[in-house]
Design goal:
Shape: elongated
Radius of gyration: 24 Å
Structural class: mainly alpha
Strand content: under 5%
Length: about 170
């Protein structure tokens, strides 16, 4: 009789421990998503607070892309998401795992666009300044315009993803 009650007691304790881990994991990842979302909202507000509307659409996108690369990117993280990988399957439904993963992937795409815009701008500046410092008459050389060519499309993608993330909110609120 004592052995049976001991096993039941151990089983109950293990069940409580597992439930606490599940609840803690949900809370930590919910809070991580909330923090990332708040950082994104603040970043988006800073980018758009003084937006000018009197210029041509492509020129506006180029200006916004320049403003984007001059604004420090938020330090989003997914530490809790990665560190709790072993508990994800027992903590979340498949649809929640997909939603959180998609949310984090979108943040990663925003980082990638940001980095690409910085690279394009840097390469344009390096290309254009290299010939200027070599004594070659600048008017005789074509200026690099890759940033101006690619920035509007990259800005559109950045804007679309950001607005979608903000409108959808925390994937665990659904």
């Amino acid at each position: 009789m004592g052995l049976g009650s001991s096993e039941i007691s151990n089983w109950r304790r293990d069940r409580r421990t597992k439930k606490r881990k599940i609840n803690s994991t949900r809370t930590l990842i919910f809070l991580e998503n909330e923090r990332n979302l708040e950082l994104l909202k603040d970043f988006w507000y800073k980018l758009n607070k003084d937006e000018e509307y009197e210029i041509e659409e492509d020129e506006l996108k180029i200006n916004m892309a320049h403003r984007l690369i001059k604004t420090p990117m938020p330090s989003w993280n997914e530490i809790m998401w990665r560190n709790q990988a072993s508990l994800l399957a027992i903590t979340f439904k498949d649809t929640e795992i997909i939603a959180i993963s998609s949310f984090n992937n979108c943040l990663e795409v925003l980082r990638s666009i940001y980095t690409k815009l910085i690279d394009l701008d840097t390469k344009d500046r390096e290309y254009n300044s290299t010939y200027g410092s070599s004594g070659v008459e600048l008017a005789s050389l074509p200026k690099s315009t890759r940033f101006h060519e690619e920035a509007p499309g990259l800005w559109d993608e950045f804007e679309k993803i950001t607005i979608k993330l903000i409108e959808n909110g925390n994937p665990l609120n659904k």
